[in-house]
C-alpha cells in the first residue's frame, strides 16, 4: 500500500518548482494513493535477475565530429525571451547559489 | 581564539577530497556544434541545443570522449567498457535544461592515481593521490548580477544570462579520500593540482588556465583527531582559481575547522566560497539537506562502449609523463633542482624548453625567461604566456648576443620592444636603430671626449688607479647611447691611458 | 476534391488536373467552414501554406522532378517545431513561442514539398488520450461532435476525418497516433523507434516518443512515412539504416503465407463487444487473403501500463524542467523584488494543466532517491520483460495484432475526473512503445452498438515496418470491397460540405 501525504506532495512540488495551493496538494495526495497502487504492480515481476532497459535500441557509441557549425544569431537566440538586456536574457534575481 | 597552524596539525589530521573541473579545448561544445571560443559577445555561441529550446536534442562530441579517455589513461585509470550519460536534475537559471548531462554511477574512467613529490622536513617525499573517477559533463552559462552589490548574488535586483559557456565540455576528476599528509596537506593539494595541470597540458586536451576558469578546483576539507578513524564533517570550498589559492584555501579551512572544533562547535556541511583578497572562505549553500538530483540514464544519448583497439590507440598517443619529462630536462640541461623548481613555479619550463629547441643555450634561455621577461610580466600583472614574446623571439635574441651583435643591455631593449608589440627582434632592432658600436674610431672619439671632460679621473687611471675607469666607461656608454660594447670600450680606454687589464 | 486520398490528389497534380494552390485553398476553405465545430487546429498558416503551394506549382511548371507527395497539404501536430510558426504543445506555458528552427520532420516535409496547412490540437505536451487536456479547448470527433477524437493527437486525426487535410503528422508515446486513428476511422502508424528523427519533437518521454504518419489510407500513410523517415545525425537515437520499403509493401498487400499472431492478453474482458466483433471479422478477412492466424501470448503485457505510467512521467518530469520562464514562453509573477525561483514556481503553476502537473509530480517521486529502484528501476525491468515477450511471440509469427483500443470514442468529459480509467485507453497500444517496435492502426468498421469506428492494430518487429503495411493494405482492400466505399463516407457531413 503506497501513499503520499500532503507534505510529501509539497516536497515533490518544491523539487519540481511548481507552486501548489493547499487544495491541490490534498487532492493530488488523494489521487496518488490510487495511482501508486496501480503503478506499484511493476514490483511484482521486477526480479533481481532482470536487466533494466533504459533504451529501446541496442545502439552504442553514437558520436559527432568536433566541428563548429553556425550558431543562431543573437536575435534568434533571444527571440523568445520574456525580457532581455544587453544581448542577454534578463531574469529575476537569483537567490541561493550553486 | 586564534589558533596557529602548528597547533592545528599537532592535534588534528586533515582529510582532503579534491574535485577538479577541466574545460576541454574542443572546437565545438559537448553536445552541439556551437563554438567554444572564449570571450565572444553574449549569446553569439548558442543554438537550440545549448539554449534548451523545446525539441532540441544533444549529440556527443567524439573528440571530448577521446580527450576524456586520454585523461583517464594518463591518470592510470581503467576505462569502463560500458558507460553512460545521466541527467542530474536541479533547477538553476544558468543551466538551460534545468538538468545537467553528466555521468552518475557509470563514469567513463575509474580507479587511477597520480604521484606527486613535495619537499618536506625530511627531504623530497612522494605522495600517491588516488583517483576515484573521471567523468564527463557540461558547463553552465554565465550570470551577471545587476543592481544591489554588483557581482554578488545577494542584493542583486535582477540577473543577465549569457549562454555562450553553456554546454562547453567539462571533465570532472575526483580523488578518493586523501589522508596521511599531516601538516603537508596544503602543499600536497597544491602539488596535486599543479601536477594535474601539467599532465592535462601535456595531453593538449585543455587550456588549463585557472584564471579563465578552464581549470577549477573544489577542495573538500575535514579534520579528525589524530588517531581517530572517524571522518569529520567536511566543507567544500568552490572554484579556487589559482595554485596558490588551493594551498591557502586548504590551510584556511583547516584552521577554521580547528577553531570551531576547539570551541566545541560543529562544522557545518556546506559549500564555501574562497575569497582571493582575504584568503578566507565565506559560507555558501548549506548541504545539510542533501539535494535530490534524481539521476537517471540520459534517454537522448546512447551508451559509450569504447573498444579495446581505440583505447590502445589513444594510450599509444600519450606523451611522456610531465614528471619524467622534467627529470630528463633537468639532466640534459644540467640545472640544479632549485633552479628547476623556480622555472616550474614561474610556469616557464615549457616555454624555456621551446626556446632551447630553437637552438638557444639552456642557461641563457632560462635566464631571459626567468629574469627580464618574468619581471615585465610581474610589472604588468599578466601571465608570461600572455606577453607578445615567443620562444622564437628569445632564441633569436640569444643568438644575436652570442654573436656579439647585441649586448645584454641592448637585448633588454629589444625584449621590451617585442613585448610592446613593435614586432620581431629584427624589426625592433631596425626601427629603434639599435646596434652595437664596433667602430673603434667612433669609440676613440667618445673616449677622448670623456677624458677631456674629466681630466682628474683620466689622470688617476694614468696613475694606475684602474677602478676609476668605471666612471669614464659610463660616460662613453652614455655618449654612444648604450650601443657600444662595454668590454671593448674598457680595453680601448685603458690602452689610451697607458694601462691594461691584468 | 478534398475527399480524395493524398495519392489521388498527387496523381491529379502530376496530371495537371489541379494545382497545389487550388488544393491548398480548398482545404483552407474547409478548415474555415468546419473547424469552428471540430477545433482540430490551433494555428492555421494560410499565407505560408499558399506560398509553399505556389512554389511547388512553379517547380512543377518548370518540369523539376518532384517527390510523390509534392503539393499535397498536411496538418502538423503542434508538438513539432516549424520555424517562425507558433508551437504550443497544447500548453499555455508555450503560448506565443515561435521556434527559430525547423524540426527534422518539418525539414523533411519541406524538402518533399508537402504543404503545411497549420498546427493541430493535442493534449498538453501529448499527455492524454482525448485531447481534452489541451489548454486551448478540446477537439471534437467528426463522427460525433460530443465525443473525443482520441489523444494525444486528436487534432491530427480529426483533421483527416473532417477532410480538413488528407495527411497529418502525429507523435506516439503510448498510443497517441494509433488510438486517435482508431476512434476517428483513420490510419495511423507509429514507426520503429529511431525510424523518424525526434529532433524538434518537443519531448514528452524521450525513450518512447516517435513521430509518424497519419492518413486516410494505408498507401497514403506509407508515402508520408517514406517522406519523413530516415537517419538524422541530429538525433543520437536515430537508426542509421535504410528506411523499410513501406510504399512497396502498401502497394503489394500480399499476405499469403504470413503468420499473424493474435495476442491473447489484448482481447476479451474490458473490450467492448462491437470492438471484438470487428476484430474477429478482420481476422477472417486476413485469413481469406491467405494469411495464417495463430495465437500468441505475452504474459507481461499486463504490467505495461503500470511501467508506462512510471517511465513516461519520470522522463517528462525532467524534459519539462526547461519550461521555467527564463528563456522563452510564459512568465508569471515577475514583480519587483521577486526571485527567479518564485517566478519559476508561479509560472509552472499557471502554465501547466492538471494532468501535466500530476505526471511531473509522479515522475519526480519515481526518480527520487530511495524510491528509484522500487519505481523507475522496476519499470525498466518490466520493459525488458515486455521486449522478451515480443521476441518470443515474433519467433512464431510475422506480425502481432489486437484491437487498437478497448472501446470506441467516449463522450467528452466522461473520464476526465478518473485518471486511471483514462489511462486504460492505452492498454493495447503501450507495449509497442515499451519495446520500441512499430505499430499501425487502421479502421476495421463501425461498432454495431454505437455506430462508431473501431481500430485494428498491427505490430511488427523493430525495423520491419513494411510488414505492417503489407497486412494493413491487405485488410484495407478486403474491407473496402466488403463495404463498397471507404468507411469515412459514412461519417456525418459536417457544416459547410
Describe the structure.
The complex is a heterotrimer of chains A (98), B (502) and C (497). Chain A contains 3 helices and 3 strands. Chain A is an alpha+beta fold. The longest helix of chain A has 18 residues, at 22-39. The relative contact order of chain B is 0.10. Chain B is of the alpha+beta class and 502 residues long. Chain B folds into 3 domains: 5-296, no CATH class; 320-432, no CATH class; 440-496, Arc Repressor Mutant, subunit A. Chain C is an alpha/beta fold and 497 residues long. In chain C, 39% of the residues lie in helices and 12% in strands. The radius of gyration of chain C is 21 Å and the shape is globular. Chain C has helices at residues 6-15, 20-38, 46-61, 104-111, 154-161, 178-184, 218-228, 246-252, 273-288, 304-319, 340-351, 354-367, 373-394, 419-423, 430-435, 466-483, and strands at 41-44, 73-77, 115-120, 167-171, 187-190, 211-215, 259-263, 292-296, 399-403, 438-446, 453-460. Chain C contains 16 helices and 11 strands. Chains in contact: A-B, A-C, B-C. Chains A and C meet through helix 1, helix 2 and strand 3 of A and helix 10, helix 11, helix 12, helix 13 and helix 14 of C.
Amino acid at each position: 500500500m503506497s501513499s503520499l501525504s500532503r507534505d510529501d506532495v509539497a516536497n515533490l512540488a518544491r523539487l519540481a518548482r511548481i507552486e501548489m495551493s493547499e487544495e491541490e496538494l490534498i487532492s493530488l495526495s488523494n489521487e496518488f494513493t490510487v495511482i501508486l497502487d496501480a503503478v506499484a504492480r511493476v514490483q511484482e515481476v521486477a526480479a533481481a535477475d532482470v536487466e533494466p532497459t533504459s533504451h529501446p535500441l541496442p545502439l552504442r557509441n553514437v558520436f559527432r565530429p568536433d566541428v563548429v557549425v553556425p550558431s543562431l544569431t543573437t536575435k534568434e537566440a533571444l527571440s523568445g525571451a520574456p525580457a532581455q538586456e544587453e544581448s542577454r536574457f534578463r531574469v529575476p534575481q537569483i537567490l541561493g547559489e550553486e | 581564539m586564534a589558533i596557529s597552524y602548528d597547533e592545528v596539525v599537532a592535534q588534528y589530521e586533515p582529510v582532503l577530497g579534491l574535485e577538479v573541473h577541466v574545460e576541454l579545448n574542443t572546437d565545438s561544445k559537448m553536445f552541439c556544434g556551437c563554438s567554444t571560443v572564449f570571450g565572444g559577445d553574449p549569446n553569439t555561441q548558442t543554438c537550440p541545443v545549448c539554449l534548451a529550446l523545446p525539441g532540441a536534442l544533444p549529440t556527443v562530441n567524439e573528440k571530448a570522449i577521446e580527450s576524456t579517455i586520454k585523461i583517464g589513461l594518463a591518470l592510470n585509470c581503467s576505462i569502463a567498457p560500458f558507460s553512460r550519460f545521466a541527467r542530474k536534475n536541479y533547477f538553476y537559471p544558468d543551466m538551460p535544461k534545468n538538468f545537467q548531462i553528466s555521468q552518475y554511477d557509470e563514469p567513463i574512467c575509474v580507479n587511477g592515481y597520480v604521484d606527486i613529490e613535495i619537499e618536506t622536513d625530511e627531504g623530497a617525499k612522494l605522495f600517491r593521490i588516488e583517483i576515484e573517477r573521471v567523468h564527463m559533463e557540461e558547463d553552465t552559462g554565465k550570470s551577471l548580477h545587476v543592481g544591489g552589490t554588483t557581482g554578488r548574488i545577494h542584493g542583486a535586483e535582477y540577473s543577465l544570462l549569457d549562454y555562450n559557456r553553456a554546454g562547453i565540455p567539462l571533465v570532472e576528476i575526483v580523488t578518493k579520500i586523501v589522508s596521511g599528509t599531516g601538516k603537508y596537506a596544503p602543499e600536497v593539494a597544491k602539488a596535486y593540482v599543479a601536477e594535474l595541470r601539467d599532465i592535462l597540458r601535456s595531453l593538449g586536451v585543455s587550456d588549463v588556465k585557472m584564471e579563465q576558469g578552464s581549470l577549477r578546483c573544489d577542495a573538500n576539507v575535514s579534520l579528525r583527531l589524530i588517531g581517530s578513524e572517524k571522518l569529520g564533517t567536511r566543507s567544500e570550498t568552490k572554484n579556487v582559481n589559482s595554485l596558490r589559492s588551493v594551498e591557502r584555501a586548504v590551510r584556511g579551512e583547516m584552521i577554521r575547522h580547528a577553531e570551531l572544533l576547539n570551541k566545541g562547535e560543529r562544522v557545518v556541511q556546506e559549500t564555501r566560497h574562497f575569497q582571493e583578497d582575504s584568503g578566507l572562505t565565506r559560507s555558501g549553500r548549506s548541504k545539510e539537506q542533501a539535494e535530490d538530483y534524481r539521476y537517471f540514464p540520459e534517454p537522448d544519448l546512447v551508451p559509450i562502449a569504447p573498444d579495446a583497439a581505440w583505447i590502445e590507440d589513444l594510450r599509444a598517443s600519450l606523451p611522456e609523463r610531465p614528471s619524467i619529462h622534467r627529470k630528463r630536462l633537468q639532466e640534459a640541461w644540467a640545472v640544479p633542482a632549485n633552479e628547476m623548481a623556480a622555472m616550474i613555479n614561474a610556469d616557464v619550463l615549457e616555454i624555456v624548453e621551446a626556446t632551447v629547441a630553437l637552438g638557444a643555450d639552456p642557461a641563457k634561455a632560462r635566464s631571459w625567461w626567468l629574469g627580464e621577461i618574468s619581471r615585465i610580466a610581474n610589472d604588468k600583472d599578466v601571465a608570461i604566456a600572455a606577453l607578445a614574446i615567443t620562444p622564437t623571439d628569445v632564441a633569436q635574441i640569444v643568438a644575436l648576443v652570442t654573436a656579439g651583435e647585441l649586448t645584454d643591455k641592448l637585448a633588454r631593449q629589444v625584449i621590451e620592444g617585442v613585448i610592446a608589440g613593435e614586432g620581431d627582434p629584427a624589426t625592433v632592432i631596425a626601427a629603434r636603430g639599435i646596434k652595437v658600436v664596433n667602430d673603434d674610431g667612433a669609440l676613440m672619439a667618445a673616449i677622448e671626449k670623456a677624458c677631456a671632460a674629466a681630466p682628474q679621473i683620466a689622470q688617476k687611471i694614468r696613475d694606475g688607479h684602474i677602478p676609476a675607469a668605471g666612471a669614464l666607461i659610463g660616460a662613453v656608454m652614455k655618449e654612444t647611447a648604450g650601443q657600444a660594447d662595454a668590454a671593448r670600450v674598457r680595453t680601448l680606454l685603458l690602452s689610451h691611458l697607458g694601462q691594461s687589464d691584468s | 476534391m478534398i475527399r480524395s486520398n493524398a495519392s489521388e490528389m498527387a496523381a491529379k497534380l502530376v496530371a495537371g488536373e489541379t494545382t497545389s494552390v487550388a488544393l491548398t485553398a480548398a482545404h483552407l476553405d474547409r478548415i474555415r467552414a468546419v473547424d469552428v465545430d471540430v477545433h482540430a487546429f490551433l494555428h492555421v498558416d494560410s499565407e505560408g501554406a499558399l506560398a509553399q503551394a505556389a512554389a511547388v506549382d512553379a517547380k512543377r511548371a518548370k518540369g523539376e522532378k518532384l517527390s510523390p507527395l509534392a503539393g499535397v497539404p498536411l496538418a502538423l501536430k503542434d508538438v513539432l517545431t516549424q520555424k517562425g510558426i507558433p508551437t504550443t504543445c497544447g500548453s499555455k506555458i508555450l503560448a506565443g513561442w515561435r521556434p527559430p528552427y525547423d524540426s527534422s520532420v518539418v525539414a523533411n516535409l519541406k524538402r518533399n514539398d508537402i504543404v503545411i496547412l497549420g498546427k493541430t490540437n493535442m493534449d498538453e505536451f501529448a499527455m492524454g488520450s482525448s485531447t481534452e487536456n489541451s489548454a486551448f479547448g478540446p477537439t471534437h470527433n467528426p463522427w460525433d461532435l460530443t465525443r473525443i477524437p482520441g489523444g494525444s493527437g486528436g487534432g491530427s486525426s480529426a483533421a483527416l476525418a473532417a477532410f480538413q487535410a488528407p495527411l497529418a503528422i502525429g507523435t506516439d508515446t503510448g498510443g497517441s497516433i494509433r488510438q486517435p486513428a482508431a476512434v476517428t476511422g483513420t490510419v495511423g502508424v507509429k514507426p520503429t523507434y529511431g525510424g523518424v528523427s525526434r529532433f524538434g519533437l518537443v519531448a514528452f518521454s524521450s525513450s518512447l516518443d516517435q513521430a509518424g504518419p497519419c492518413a486516410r489510407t494505408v498507401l497514403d500513410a506509407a508515402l508520408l512515412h517514406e517522406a519523413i523517415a530516415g537517419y538524422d545525425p541530429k538525433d543520437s537515437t536515430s537508426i542509421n539504416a535504410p528506411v523499410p520499403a513501406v510504399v512497396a509493401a502498401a502497394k503489394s498487400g500480399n499476405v499469403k503465407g504470413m503468420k499473424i499472431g493474435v495476442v491473447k492478453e489484448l482481447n476479451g474482458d474490458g473490450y467492448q463487444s462491437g470492438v471484438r466483433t470487428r476484430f474477429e471479422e478482420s481476422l477472417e478477412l486476413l485469413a481469406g487473403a491467405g494469411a495464417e492466424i495463430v495465437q500468441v501470448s505475452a504474459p507481461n503485457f499486463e504490467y505495461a501500463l503500470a511501467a508506462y505510467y512510471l517511465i513516461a512521467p519520470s522522463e517528462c518530469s525532467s524534459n519539462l524542467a526547461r519550461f521555467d520562464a527564463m528563456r522563452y514562453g510564459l512568465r508569471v509573477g515577475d514583480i519587483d523584488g521577486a526571485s527567479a525561483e518564485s517566478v519559476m514556481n508561479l509560472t509552472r503553476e499557471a502554465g501547466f494543466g492538471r494532468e501535466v502537473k500530476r505526471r511531473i509530480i509522479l515522475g519526480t517521486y519515481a526518480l527520487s532517491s530511495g524510491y528509484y529502484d522500487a519505481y523507475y528501476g522496476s519499470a525498466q525491468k518490466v520493459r525488458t520483460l515486455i521486449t522478451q515477450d515480443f521476441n518470443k511471440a515474433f519467433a512464431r509469427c510475422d506480425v502481432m495484432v489486437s484491437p487498437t483500443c478497448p472501446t470506441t470514442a467516449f463522450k467528452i468529459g466522461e473520464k476526465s475526473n478518473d485518471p486511471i480509467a483514462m489511462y486504460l485507453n492505452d492498454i493495447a497500444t503501450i507495449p509497442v512503445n515499451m519495446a520500441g517496435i512499430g505499430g499501425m492502426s487502421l479502421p476495421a468498421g463501425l461498432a454495431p452498438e454505437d455506430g462508431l469506428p473501431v481500430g485494428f492494430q498491427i505490430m511488427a518487429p523493430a525495423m520491419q515496418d513494411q510488414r505492417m503495411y503489407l497486412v494493413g493494405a491487405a485488410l484495407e482492400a478486403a474491407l473496402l470491397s466488403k463495404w463498397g466505399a471507404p468507411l469515412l463516407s459514412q461519417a456525418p457531413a459536417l457544416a459547410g460540405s
